[in-house]
Every structure is written in structure tokens, then in C-alpha cells.
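Can anyone check this?
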Amino acid sequence: WSMSPVQPPAHLLRARADALREGLRAGSDPIDGLDAALLLAMIDDRDAAIATLSDAVAMGYRDEAYLRASPLFASVRGSPRFEAVIAAIDTAIAREREAVRERRLEVSAAP
């Protein structure tokens, strides 16, 4: 939809975003949170879009580089709350790395 010259009505986009957010809360793939955030950004609900990105991070999304580079998130990227989402990713990754170190797990690249 984001590339289509005809955008569906806002109420349909919000309904789909709400369904994706509900699934995310129930444990679906964190990518669903990104999809919901994109839909919310399309209808100019930037606050809800950023809150949904935060939910996706809480559920395991970690691709900071994509969020920073994708033109799909340009409308929310300038917000201090967006930067807080990025910081949450950094914090989560640091915590996960420390947990690996504490358990003395062997980490190697995939073949």
C-alpha cells in the first residue's frame, strides 16, 4: 500500500494495524509490529507508530540499521521517541550479549 498511488481509507489501515498489534501482544513475530507501525505512519499517527515500534523491540525486534535506513520510517525518524526505540535496541543487545558471556557460551558465525 505504501507504494500504491491509491491508499486505502484510514479506518481500514488502522483496523489492520490494530489486528497486527493485538497479534504482537499475543506473541506473533515482531515484524508484525513493524507492519503495524508502517500502517499507522501512513495515516499520520506517528505516536502510535513509535509506540508500536517500541512494542516490537520489547518482543524481540533488533534491526536498528533497518529502522535508521528505511525510507518507510522517515516520517517518525526525527522524533526523540524514535531515538528512544533505537536506544532500547542497543540496551537489549548489550543485555543479550552479557547473558551469553555470563553463561560462557561459545558463539560462532554460521557456516
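Reply from J.R.: I decoded it. The radius of gyration is 16 Å.
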